[in-house]
Amino acid sequence: MNQQRPKGQIMLVTVLILSGTILGAVAIAGLLMIYQVRQTTNVANSTKAIFAADAGLECEFYNRIKDGVEICDDILFTNDVSADDADDVSVVTTVKDNIIQSVGNSGDTSRAFKATF
Predict the structure, then answer these.
(1) Is 52:105 a contact under the CB 8 Å cutoff?
(2) Most buried among 5, 28, 42, 66, by the most CB within 10 A?
(3) Is 3 a domain residue?
(4) Is residue 1, in this structure, part of any structural domain at all?
(5) How far is 55 from 25, CA to CA, in rounded Å?
(6) What are phi and psi of 86, to 5 degrees?
(7) How many CB atoms are closer than 10 A to CB 48?
(8) 45, 83, 91, 36 alpha-carbon torsion, rounded to 10°
(9) CB burial class (10 A; 0-12, 13-18, 19+) of residue 100?
(10) Is there a contact between 49 and 104 (Cβ–Cβ < 8 Å)?
(11) What is the pTM of this model?
């Protein structure tokens, strides 16, 4: 009886299993890195949108104190950038029935503040 043992097949299967495991781990790590980079960008846009919405709300409060003096078109952000020509930052403020709503937009992110009195 001359039985030949399979030579190299176990090594080939082991290499394939290890390669598949490493490939899966690298793919998952890459996906997680993409999510972290996207989240970092969203935090920056969210911060810009919050400050823009706050500026619009504060401007309307000032208008109420000064008896209707309209200055909301002249909101200035950092580096002397106004709301009209700010890169991807905008403010929309509405006043209706003693409710002030200010929405700040930056990129794909929107944040809103609402005041009722």
Answers:
(1) yes
(2) 42
(3) no
(4) no
(5) 45
(6) -70, 140
(7) 22
(8) 0
(9) buried
(10) yes
(11) 0.58
Output the CA angle 23-29-33, nearest 5 degrees.
145
The one-letter code for the residue type at 5 is R
Q: Which two tokens stand for residue 94?
A: 């509405």
Q: Residue 15 falls within a domain, yes or no?
A: yes
Separation between Cα atoms, residue 89 and residue 25, nearest integer Å: 39
Residues 78, 89 contacting (CB under 8 angstroms)? no
Range of the domain at 27: 9-116
Contact of 109 with 42, CB cutoff 8 Å: yes
Overall number of domains in the chain = 1
Question: 92: which strand partners?
Answer: 103
Nearest residue to 59 (alpha-carbon basis) of 71, 51, 48: 71
The model's pLDDT over 54-90, given as tens digits with 9 standing for 90+, comes to 888 888 888 878 776 676 655 656 544 445 545 566 6
Joined tokens for residue 77: 């952000």
CA dist 73 to 1, 39, 70, Å?
A: 96, 31, 8
pLDDT at 29 over 60: yes
**Contacts for 59 with CB less than 8 Å, ≥ 6 apart:** 71, 72, 75, 93
